[in-house]
């Protein structure tokens, strides 16, 4: 999800590193690459990028740049572009290389492969075909954000990118809002404010952390409630790569006054059945009970 790696500082003396010349065994190698600072790559990742028979990448330019930084030559090896728009066309070529007994190194745009990138089907199909699939652990924007957020980390849930459309985004929020875990999401920097505004409609005091440009020069971590952070973000949004985290939901008191207040905000815009279903889900109550109260409120209005 992140931009290409940077060199991570100026004036630093280069280290003397030994890169292995032994070819890896046949199989698919999922190579985690830096989310910002190029020096965050592991020695094992450099070994495999140096010796794999075939290279594949979500963005071949980023991979070439990373290899150039670390002095790893391509040596005429094939580099296959594998991304959302060509995955179905390119997957047979990668599986064909595995069938020939070759080693294939796949790198996402930045971070850990298969976390919000198109590598899922590739790994699944390779495993189902009986080929070895190996993970080369390393940088991960989601875990880096969780590390610095200051939110509970004993249980967390990664929910990917929210939908762009407002209505779909609200439903997406409802799908995880009551989960008893820290929520981790990726978001476009231009839409972060809209995401927080949507959350504020139903849970304005939710503990929220925004991590921007992790491991890069202008790294920033913003902490507060959803309302506080929404007020700090300009209308045009933020710049750079963004990870948003939400703390666990606050306990909801399901008394009649709370139910009536919540229903009152929806009955003017939604049919009774849909309003009751949403509030029942929000408070963790049987739909039948909330529906009965919603009908009573509608009759009172009439």
From TrEMBL:
Belongs to the methyltransferase superfamily. RsmI family. Signal peptide: none annotated. This is Ribosomal RNA small subunit methyltransferase I. Residues 28-230 form the Tetrapyrrole methylase domain. Catalyzes the 2'-O-methylation of the ribose of cytidine 1402 (C1402) in 16S rRNA. Residues 254-298 form the RsmI HTH domain. It holds the Pfam family RsmI_C. Its main location: cytoplasm. The keyword Lyase does not apply. The keyword Glycosyltransferase does not apply.
């Amino acid at each position: 999800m992140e931009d290409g790696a940077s060199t991570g500082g100026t004036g630093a003396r280069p280290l003397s590193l030994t890169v292995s010349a032994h070819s890896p065994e046949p199989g698919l190698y999922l190579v985690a690459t830096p989310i910002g600072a190029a020096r965050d790559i592991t020695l094992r990742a450099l070994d495999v990028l140096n010796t794999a028979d075939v290279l594949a990448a979500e963005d071949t330019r980023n991979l070439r740049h990373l290899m150039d930084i670390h002095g790893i030559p391509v040596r005429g090896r094939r580099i296959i572009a594998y991304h959302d728009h060509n995955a179905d066309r390119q997957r047979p070529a990668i599986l064909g290389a595995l069938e020939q007994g070759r080693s294939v190194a796949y790198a996402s745009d930045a971070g850990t492969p298969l976390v919000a990138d198109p590598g899922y089907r590739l790994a699944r199909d390779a495993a189902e075909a009986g080929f070895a699939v190996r993970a080369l652990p390393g940088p991960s924007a989601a875990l880096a954000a969780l590390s610095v957020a200051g939110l509970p980390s004993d249980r967390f849930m990664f929910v990917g990118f929210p939908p762009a459309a407002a209505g779909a985004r609200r439903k997406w929020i409802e799908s995880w809002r009551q989960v008893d875990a820290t929520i981790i999401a990726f978001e476009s920097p231009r839409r972060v404010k809209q995401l927080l505004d949507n959350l504020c409609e139903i849970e304005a005091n939710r503990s929220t952390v925004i991590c921007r440009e992790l491991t890069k020069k202008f790294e920033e971590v913003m902490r507060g409630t959803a309302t506080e952070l929404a007020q700090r973000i300009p209308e045009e949004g933020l710049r750079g790569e963004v990870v948003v985290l939400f703390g666990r939901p606050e306990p909801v008191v399901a008394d009649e006054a709370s139910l009536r207040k919540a229903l009152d905000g929806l009955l003017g815009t939604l049919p009774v059945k849909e309003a009751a279903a949403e509030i029942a889900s929000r408070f963790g109550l049987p739909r039948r009970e909330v529906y009965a109260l919603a009908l009573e409120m509608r009759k009172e209005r009439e």
